[in-house]
Amino acid sequence: MLPCSEPRLVAELMRLRLLDKAFDMTGVQSAAEVMGKSAGFVRVDFKITPFLVAADDASLMKEVSIRARKRVARWGVVNFEDFVATLKKAGLNAPDTLVREVLAAHQDLVWLDEPRRWFWLRDVPRNRLITLIEKVVVLAPRVRLSELRSAVSRPHIMKGFAVPKRILAALCAQLPSLTVEGDFVVATDRPPLERLWIGSQRLMIEILLANGGVMQRAALEEEALAQGVNESSFWVYLDFSPAFIRHAMGVYGLIGAAAPPELVESLARPRKLGKALQGFGWAKRDRPWLSYRLTESTLSSGHFTIPTALRRLSGSFELRVLNDAFMGKLVVRGIRATGLRPLFRRSGAEPGDWLVLDFDLKQRLAYVRLADSAAVMSGQELLDKSAVAPAANVD
Q: What is the 3-state secondary structure (H, E, C) of 72-110?
């Protein structure tokens, strides 16, 4: 049964009637030492729980704890199955039961769902997801969960990771400055905007605020560049900042700002969309792109179809998010593409989410991101942006 916590081992021995009552396993160690033998384990106190592990695994609990805290800081919330998989990949002998016991030894542990598949550690500082949530609610003090989920998954630092809505709601309910009211997250206390938004993004926010919260992309770009925003930065922030929403082709707004359909329609150009395939084209000669709206079938299979007009797409591509992190292999044979299932599982993708793929035929790369419909670009917009490299981060 090793490694495991001492209470669990003692309970199991009592269940098997090998012990009559609770027993301190240090007695076994002491007896072995008197007899000049090894007990076969060492007893390690971790926080408030004693664990029994092989001598080579004496630092195991501390290593699991450190990795858990790093992942919470990085992603905000952590999927338990994914966390265990990363431990195994790192070569750590950490069974599921042991990992749960190590997590339970943290007094700041919060399970965010009843099956206990998602967790959060309250005392971890600099939680990226919580920081993004705070940046959104300072602009939108009453925001739909779906909009919040889309916004916080957009920045490069999140690598397309989209927390399931029920988990995001559970996290928000734990934060002292937020409440959850049905499908809405409501801020009960907000810091000043200038504390959370700085630099070019703040300039773009102020331009939108001065223009009613919704503008044509061309007008927003013209004014932003006139005020000193770098062109490359403008496109990166427009795509990946949680502050901005794409309402229609060429029409952008501030999250939380009212966007009446008649206003959006008057600013937008009409565009016909398909059912699952939402768009495709060529940003450059060797840079085809595709956008899909995810269905239950696509999520369960990880498969999707390639338009015949893009038949040059064939073979294997390294699947990457836009900061170049490797996410697996995408294989295209004819009009069928496979390999997205691991990405969907790890990112918490849901039906109705939007998938954007940008292929680099020369390097055999496929850049991927999950977003809402606001992030899906038309062919012309991708062409406008084709020379703009994505930034590594957003401020």
A: HHHHCCEEHHHHHHHHHHCCCCCCHHHHHHHHHCCCCEE
